[in-house]
What does this fold into?
Amino acid sequence: MDKIKILKKYYGYTSFRPGQEEIIDSILDGNDTVGIMPTGGGKSVCYQIPALLLEGITLVVSPLISLMKDQVDALNDLGIPSAYINSSLSSKEYNKIYRNLKLGIYKIVYVAPERLENEEFIYEINNLNISQISIDEAHCVSQWGHDFRSSYLNIIKFIWQLKKKPIISAFTATATPEVREDIIYMLKIKPNVFITGFDRPNLKYIVVKGVNSTSYIKEYLKEHTGESGIIYCATRKEVDSLYGELSKRYKIGRYHAGMSDKERNENQEEFIKDNIEIMVATNAFGMGIDKSNVRFVIHSNLTKDLESYYQEAGRAGRDGLSSTCILIFNPKDIKTQRFFIENNQFGASSEIIKGKYEKLSTVINYAHTSKCIRSYVLEYFGELSVENCGNCSSCLDTRIEENITIESQKIISCIGRTKERYGINTIVSVLAGSKNASILKFKLNTQTTYGILKEYTQKEIRALMDLLVGDGYLEITTGEYPIVILTKKGKEFIKEKKEIFRKVEKIEKRVFQENMQLFEELKKIRKIIAEEENLPPYMIFSDKTLKEMSEKEPSNQEDLLKVSGVGEIKLKKYGIRFLEKIESFLKSN
Ligand code: ADP
Ligand code: ZN
It folds into this structure.
């Protein structure tokens, strides 16, 4: 069978995505091959199709145990016999897999990198025909990347111990040019390299500034009920607090390193199964997630660098349907990240710390730039880019202007009247007319500016002040007790009677399309099947496939097979039930 037939039969697709065919051909010709493709670009197909066409077994090295199980379940569901070997297996399961391996039952076997050091494993593997070793998340081998794993250094040692050298293929989504070179250097190969570009046209990138992030998120969720999304926060505390705010209204879960493994796994599992719609999490969440129907990723805080941002945001829209990535920027988050840099460095050299500050500035600039932010990222990854992508907050500029001159005058005069002696929280309290202890202690309630912004919540006042800091009217001093002072620009603003505007991001209203109802019905049947099969719903069929079904309304098996994502094997397994649903829907409507 040739590769295009395999693509249709197993995966249900009729054409290759950019780069896939070239990579597959390169591997089939016996070359070591490196594929650099964005998340959702379709890396799996690039090593799985060669695995099916080559004689013998393909070993896939993958860093995450949780993901391995999903990947293997998905392959078996496609009708491709596969297994995984990692520390989660019982010795009974393990022995069974070895027996099957010797019988030549599997075409693809996922292994954790730690396993490659294991003498027994090396011995067993050396008696088998290993045609290909595929290294997933290959940037983990580089110390320059953001996810270095020392166990990845085992890979090359392992390969050197094999009697017959297999074809090596390596894949990653995040690689700056230096990481790219390092991967090749560390693996000691001379590969064909295919770089398909990092752009994710279906993702809309938005930066939001000068808002209270909780209110913004609440607004956003109101417009996007029923969609699956991830909200990232910088700290556990922020995750817990946002979770508390949202949990009464939404099907929501949380995830951070302060929770038990059990609780985290359960939440992750429920999210994958669509029982939880929204996950509020720290960056500890997501590495092991292949869920393709994530419709939005909101960062409530700044990330440590642009690579992390791009990778985390990139968890949206793997299925290719349009999805949104929002970064909410507040100047105070810069301080949090600086704190992380200063406090997580046990004996790190000043060189490394400097590097981290430089990386932090890349994501700060992303938030500040007025040019196309998609191009900004693409250029960072060393790619030529378009001037105007038409699908980011800079290019679309969907914001509305709001005049905040009066509010700004009030804030600045409050700081002036209290002689630039207080921290931001105290100033906020004065403006809001709060009666807290420190206000009473310093008799700040007798100030003429006391309570002059009482129609605003403290959080809103804080957001206004953050904006004035960001735009250079105010400055927060460093040191143990930071205070807010006026800058030259701030003082001039009062004298010169200038106006200040802020641009507020309009929340996009969801457009309801005609076939939405049928789509929702198909999602329901998918959920039922997923429960029976004990698989995540998106693995049965992706949202994209269901969307296409709801548009084409196929009435027989041949037409259903024409829908992208429906292969012969899945057609046999699930086709009838979807056809029945479509028929009954059309009858009753
Ligand atoms: P990656 O590992 O690069 O993030 P995946 O291999 O998980 O991406 O693929 C992302 C999605 O794209 C999957 O749903 C996959 O089935 C789909 N896909 C892969 N190749 C094609 C193709 N040629 N045509 C349509 N969809 C594809
Ligand atoms: Zn743009």
